[in-house]
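Below is a filled-in request sheet from our internal design queue. Each sheet records the structural input a requester submitted and the sequence that came back. We keep these sheets so that new team members can see what a complete request looks like end to end.

REQUESTER: design group, bay 2
PRIORITY: normal
MODE: inverse folding
CHAIN LENGTH: 422
BACKBONE (tokenized):
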């Protein structure tokens, strides 16, 4: 692990497969992408913002390069390390901000890096949640009332025109947003709460969107995952349903299941065709409770999502298809659903979310267990990656031990103060 490219040997191809460069490894999406490519023999170099992250212990990655500046330092880091890839490499972004940055610099990077993205204007149109409304109208796709805001001067007009509750989220999710809030969106129940949220969140993103809330539980959330190749053809695609989110209502999917729902897949394909999009994407929809109306919520484009491994769980090598198309290799044969109803779970998120639901009476233990039946793939815990497991366990024990020691010390101090007063 190093930030100095001079200390790393060049990364050779493996049986005709050029390396994949994954940015970032230290988030929930990067490790799954690395694993999906590693099993096909792809040599992987991963970029991280912090080399002490537990994921740096993974055996799926050949080399780890630290980029402390994060998204802002990615272009300099790629250029500085381009000598490692004499035969080129496929670059794979794992968050929205990075996908936008890389896509806008395609010409500058193209001598070394192959990128599975469309032209910058197309990705900006779909990926920026503040710009997609006109496209949705042309494609005749239902969507909630949405408005964008860039400055605090616009707050009064926005607050006045909303129908509550509403959801607030960044037009393009960044690392700074996630690090500060640890959630992808915030729900505002009233004008007063919306004012507080907007004043805080405008400091974390250059622009925000305020979106009408669509009634319905987390299980009414659906996504269409796909990869459209350089030739414009759909090379792989599937629909999945979120069974739970963490946190509830505004979080990320903690467990998702493959399903067939043409009222999600068909509008998604129309949107892709209307925009001329190329690359990886997930189109998210939500069914309004009590109806069969599915509303477009957002598009995550140019990169995989947290629940993308549900594709591999049901037999679709979605992420490897992306790599092969970029690297000009034969496409995998496994691009169609072979295991209907397969699921993918983020154990760290889902155990906490399920416990909260059980304690609150929202779900029963039997209901929870029923969602874990059938073919289930783990997104975050892998027995074949023992170093990550052991380090994660050791750090968890140390953290909980420190918390327990602090509580005992605080309890003893409280008792001492009471005894002194007496």
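RETURNED SEQUENCE:
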């Amino acid at each position: 692990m190093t930030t100095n490219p001079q200390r790393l040997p060049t990364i050779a191809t493996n049986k005709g497969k050029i390396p994949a460069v994954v940015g970032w490894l230290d988030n929930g999406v990067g490790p799954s992408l690395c694993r999906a490519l590693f099993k096909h023999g792809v040599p992987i170099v991963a970029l991280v913002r912090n080399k002490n992250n537990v994921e740096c212990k993974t055996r799926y990655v050949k080399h780890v390069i630290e980029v402390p500046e994060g998204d802002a330092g990615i272009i300099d880091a790629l250029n500085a390390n381009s000598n490692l890839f004499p035969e080129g490499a496929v670059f794979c972004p794992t968050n929205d901000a990075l996908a936008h940055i890389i896509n806008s610099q395609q010409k500058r990077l193209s001598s070394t890096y192959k990128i599975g993205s469309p032209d910058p204007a197309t990705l900006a149109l779909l990926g920026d949640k503040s710009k997609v409304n006109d496209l949705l109208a042309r494609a005749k796709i239902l969507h909630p009332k949405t408005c964008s805001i860039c400055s605090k001067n616009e707050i009064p007009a926005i607050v006045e025109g909303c129908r509550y509750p509403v959801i607030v989220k960044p037009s393009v999710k960044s690392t700074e947003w996630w690090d500060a809030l640890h959630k992808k969106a915030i729900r505002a129940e009233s004008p007063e709460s919306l004012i507080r949220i907007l004043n805080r969140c405008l400091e974390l993103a250059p622009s925000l969107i305020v979106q009408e809330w669509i009634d319905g539980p987390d299980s009414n959330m659906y996504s269409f995952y796909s990869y459209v190749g350089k030739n414009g053809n759909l090379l792989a695609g599937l629909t999945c349903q979120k069974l739970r989110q963490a946190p509830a209502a505004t979080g990320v999917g903690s467990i998702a299941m493959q399903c067939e729902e043409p009222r999600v897949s068909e509008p998604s394909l129309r949107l892709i065709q209307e925009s001329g999009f190329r690359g990886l994407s997930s189109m998210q929809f939500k069914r309004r409770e009590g109806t069969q109306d599915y509303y477009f919520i957002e598009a995550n484009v140019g990169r995989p999502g947290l629940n993308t491994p549900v594709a591999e769980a049901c037999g679709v090598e979605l992420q490897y298809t992306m790599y092969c198309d970029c690297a000009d290799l034969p496409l995998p044969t496994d691009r169609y659903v072979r295991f209907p109803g397969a699921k993918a779970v983020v154990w760290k998120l889902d155990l906490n979310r399920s416990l909260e639901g059980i304690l609150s009476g929202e779900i029963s233990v039997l209901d929870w267990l029923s969602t874990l039946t059938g073919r289930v793939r783990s997104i975050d815990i892998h027995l074949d990656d023992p170093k990550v497991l052991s380090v994660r366990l050791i750090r968890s024990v140390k953290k909980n031990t420190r918390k327990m020691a602090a509580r005992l010390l605080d309890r003893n101090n409280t008792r001492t103060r009471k005894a002194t007063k007496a």
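SHEET NOTES:
- Residues 218-378 form a domain with the D-amino Acid Aminotransferase; Chain A, domain 1 fold (CATH 3.30.470.20).
- The chain has a mean pLDDT of 91.
FILED BY: M.R.
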